[in-house]
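Most newcomers find our protein records easier to grasp once they have seen one. Read left to right, the backbone structure tokens trace the chain's path through space. Once this layout is familiar, the rest of the handout is easier to follow. The record below serves as our worked example for the rest of this section:


***
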Amino acid sequence: MQQTKERIWTKDFISICVANFFIFLGFQMTLPTVPLLVQELGGSNQMIGIITGIFTFSALLIRPNAGHALESKGRQFVYLIGLSIFVISVGSFAFITSIVFLLLMRVVQGLGWGYSTTATGTIATDLIPQSRRGEGMGYFGLSGNLALAFGPTLGLTLYGYLSFTWLFIIAASLGLMAFILATQITYKKVEPPLSEEKTSRFDVVEKSALTPAILLFFITTTFGGIASFLPLYTAEENIAGIEIYFLLYALFLMVSRTFSGRLYDRYGHVAVFLPGAASIIIAMCLLVWMPNAVVLFIAASLYGLGFGSVQPALQAWAVNSAANHRKGMANATFFSFFDLGVGTGAMVFGQIANSFGYSYIYLTAAISVSLSILLYIYLFFLRRQRPAQI
């Protein structure tokens, strides 16, 4: 008799997906527009990199605390606190007139983002049956991908018609909608760990999640180069269509989510990681070359396919490797390395853009992803063969 599949699409899972869509939409609107605000305030490429990077490093520092709070205070408490901080910080962007204040509020935004995204990934994990976790995380990721499809384009379009004040008020309002939806979810009760399983306040990583998290770090450095500098790069090269780039990227990212999660559940990370990482490398090389808009759009498609395959597979791997009372810390570790990659990439790429030009950003990004492939091959092919050779 064929076994009935456990349900993924429950009321609460739909609610967390829609809430995630709204918070990511508000966030994605700020990705291409904050660098434009920095420019308007008189900032340089280096300052754009710093302001982008300080946000992600702020989120990085708070994630271990968020991971512990998820297990001690509960999912709802952490999620609603994070959403509140995010809404207040993004709303403040509407009234910023100095780079110093913008830098300060980006730190605050990072705190809210660190709390809310660590919580939402853990909440989604709670709601998805373990037997379908790769598939479910792929579907959950679609909510963020839909936001990515519209967020940067919406932000750039509104920038053409509205002031920064109204643009950031709209972005904050989307976060408020996520908060309202989050209050309607039935959250999993946190079971206290056994006494011997309790962790100290200095416990900041989940060791079982480190391998996928480190691999992710080398991948997400590329994201800092895309989000912070690609609009400026295409403008310098007089290539139109940056809005279409983000739409194509998100479209192919969504397409990849429809099959990559199932591949992971059936065959494991080996069937997803290597092809996905290779696709990202090709995309970065195309951006180095980028003679016209057609190549830009092909790069968007390949990057979407690659990143959309790799990210949910690595997250499912990280969560599945952890004990039940450590799922929150596993997500915290995973997203900490996500943030570290984005922040490191943005800051390093700001220096590279200043010294060598924008195209060298994407050459460096291709090298970074190549390092992740080499590390993966070493860990799962070469190192495993050594004992048999002794």
In short: Residues 44 and 390 are 56 Å apart (CA to CA). The first helix runs from residue 11 to 30.
